[in-house]
Every structure is written in structure tokens, then in C-alpha cells.
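2 proteins. here.
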Amino acid sequence: MFPKIPDRHKEGNPLVPTGLGVFYVLISVIYLFLLHYYYGVNFHQELSLQALTLAVCILFGGFMGLLDDWIDLRWRYKAFLPIVAALPLGVLRQGTPIMSTYFFGKIDFCKLSFWIVPGEIIFYFAVIPLIVTITTNAVNQLGGLNGLETICPSIVLIALMVVSNSETRILLFIPLITYLVLAFFNFQGKIFVGNTGSFAIGITIAAYALIANR
């Protein structure tokens, strides 16, 4: 059913099914769409919009990963694909345009301007795409190493859930459980999530961190 690639970390290089990250995308998106509907009809518009934004980001990420699995894009193109997945965050204005940095302290982009461009626009359409691109490519670099591309992002997701508020963390319940199941089989070398999974989970981490930044 799924294409198979050799596992070069095992003796004999057995063929292992790859691309199972599509299950993460499908289950997570369905769950988030249901949350979007539920909170929408119950007049919790902010959480409803957050669920929709995260769902669309995961869809974008999963599609780009699937595209890469399908036609094996070169790194020069692959590296910049996550910029597209960052568009929902900017268009729907998710995340607070205030950042705490190591060197410059707290930066409020609402109070800045770059020539005639408001700082808020820079945040949503330059800073956010940069964050999403770096995070997604960092996760994608772990691909092919049994367990690393699934366990490491899972640890990050758990940490993000712990530090975020009780309302927002509900967005990650089913996505995290789904990815932990995939991590269990990936660690044993029985499956690979492929670029579909690594792109989707990388974008999940970046998008959720920005959405939860309140």
C-alpha cells in the first residue's frame, strides 16, 4: 500500500514502508476541524479560529511533504516550501506580535515600522515565515534516523503543551497521541513517516508555538 525504502540502519537494509505521516495529517486535521466547528457554535471564536489555522497549516505541510515524497524535490526548493504553510498564520493574524529575544530583549512589532511598512506586517509576513521555515527544516533533517524524526518532535510538543494555557493545549491532544503512536513504530524501525510526516509535525510545532503565544 505504501512505498518502501531500505532501512540503512539495519543489517541487510530491509525495506520499510514510508509516508505513514499521512495518518498524522488526516487524523489531526479532522480533529481540528471538529474543534473549529464545536467552538464556533459555542461562541468561542478565538479558539475556533486557532483550530482552523492549525488545521490549514498542517494540511499545507502534509501536502508539501507528500509532494516531496512523490517527486523528490531538491533541497534548494524544499527548504523554502514551508513559507507557503506560514501564510494562514499571517492572513488570519495568529500569534501576538511581541517577541522576547536573547540579544534585544522584548520586541513589540506593533510599535515598529520599517520605512513605510508597519512592523506588524513584518512580523506576520516575514518573521513568522522565517520561524516556520527554520523549524520545519530542522525537523526534516532528522528524517531517516529511526525514532529521531518522531520522538524528538513529540518531546517538543509535550513541552509546548505543558507551558501553554489549558484552553489552547486541547488543540494538540489528538495530534500528539497520533504522533506518539507513529513514534512507537518508527523507533522500532517498522515504519517511516516520510517527508509528509516530518513537514507536517515541523509546521505543527512552529504554528502551535506562535498561536499559543498570548
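next one coming up
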Amino acid sequence: MTHFLQSPLLISALTFPKRLVGSFSPTLLLHRHTRTKPFCSDMSATSSTSLTHCISLPTQLGQPVQIVAAPGLSDSEFRSAIESSLFRQWLKNLESESGILANGDMTLTHVLIQGVDMFGKRIGFLKFEADIIDKGTGKKVPGIVFARGPAVAVLILLESEGTTYAVLTEQVRVPTGRLVLELPAGMLDDDKGDFVGTAVREVEEEIGIHLNLEEMVDLTAFLEPSTGFKVFPSPGGCDEEIGLFLYRGHVDKNIITQLQGKETGLHERGELIKVRVVPFEKLWRMTPDAKTLMAVAIYEMAKKEGLLPQKS
């Protein structure tokens, strides 16, 4: 029988695959994309102060991009926004091989930083509007962006007495106005790109169990390289990219009973979570959560094509 409860010391002792560890240097990217020009304040006709900053992108040299703070945004918030990993990664994506500025058909002219939500000392959410012009038509393409960065989610399947169960969380999701049944998930807390470590930590926080890293399967690694090995749940308005993982284990029935209805989460952060365990065969009908449905789809296709590693 494979035990899924492991010592947390085992987690920190393992080395993650290179593809899962980000090699991007925030300092280098900021230097690459920004001129050594100080912030400046321009007085408008109404005598209100507007913070502005200019950057130059390698894909459109000679066409500086003006970044402007919306009214009410403080100097420190504005600085934090344009220096944040969220904003720098967005700029990097624009100029990547598959980026929308890569072939020269479009140009970025202006960015309005509208809002910043701080998670402690770092930016958690960033809201801005980008003016990207299609050169062929001269029209601006839709450019409202809610940036929250990369995240992970884990599909946990536990087999007990011939039945496979999925382990989910149920918690308040204020944007939807509902309680939502979903996979254990969370945002990456830093720029290191530690998707596997974050996945394990989120399961520990939201479910209260330790997973064996050696038995984690990166489901999004089965996608084509052009996808970046991530999924976008809402690409029309949000930059969030999610790495989906799979964990499979065998447990006694009493473990299923203990997990059902268990209250977890970091209460100091307002996380009021209940664990729900459901038969896997019914899962796809029971949740509106896109992470769950995407994970189920990739899992089933990978299993059909024989891509999943054999369980120990």
C-alpha cells in the first residue's frame, strides 16, 4: 500500500526538474526593458499630478512606451507596479517568440496603471490597460489586463476499497458570490517558478496532508511546447497561467472518512476551507471550477494515450 502521508523533511530535500525552475532574472529584465530615466511628473491642464514613466522595447526601438498612473495611485504603488514581476513578465511575454509584438504587426504605445493590491510587501494583483495598435488597420485591440501571475493546482486521486476518490476544497469565492468546489490551488509566492514546491505546500495548507514529491505528475507537461506547458483559464482578461499536477495514492477507508468535511486553510488569511471527497467518476458533473475540468480532461487523455507513469 502506498502511503500518501510523508514527512515534510522529505519535501525540502528533493531537487526539482530544471524545466520547473524559472531561470528568468527580474533584475536583468528590468534593465533590458527600461531606460535609466527617473520617474517624472507631468502637470495636466487641470493641474492634477500624473506620474509617468517611459520604457523602450527591443522589438520597437525608437517607439518609446509611456506608462501612466491613474488618478489616486501613489508614487510608491506606481513604482512597485512597473518594477513588479507581474508587469515585467507581461512585457517579456509580448516579445517572446509567440508574443503579439514579435512579428512587428502590432505596437505597444501606452499603458495606464489602474490599481495595485499588495500581499504583504509584494504585489499580488495588478490592473492596467494597454494600448496595442494593429498596424494594418490602425485600430486598438482590447487591452484590459488583470495580472495575477502563475499558479498551480493538484488533482489528488485516492484509491480505497476499489473506488477512486478526488480530494477537493470548498470555500467562499467572493468574485462569484458562491461557495465553489475546486482543486487545491494557489499562486506562486516568488519569482523562482517553483511550481512543484508550491503545489505541495498548497495541498498541505488546504487539505492538511503531505504529498510524496516523487509521485507527483505534471499533467501540463503533456501539452505541446507552444503552450508553455501551462493552461490559461481566462486569457481574454487575465494573465494567470496554471500548472496542473496529479497525485495518485492508495489509502484505507478511514482516511477518506477523516478527510471528509475537515476544516483547514490559513485562518489568519481568511481562508475558511472544508475538504470534500467525491467519487472521481462523478467529479466532472459536480464542479464549475475550470481548473478541475481541465485537469480531468488532460488526465483522461494522457491515460488514454498511455502517457501516465505506472503507479508504484
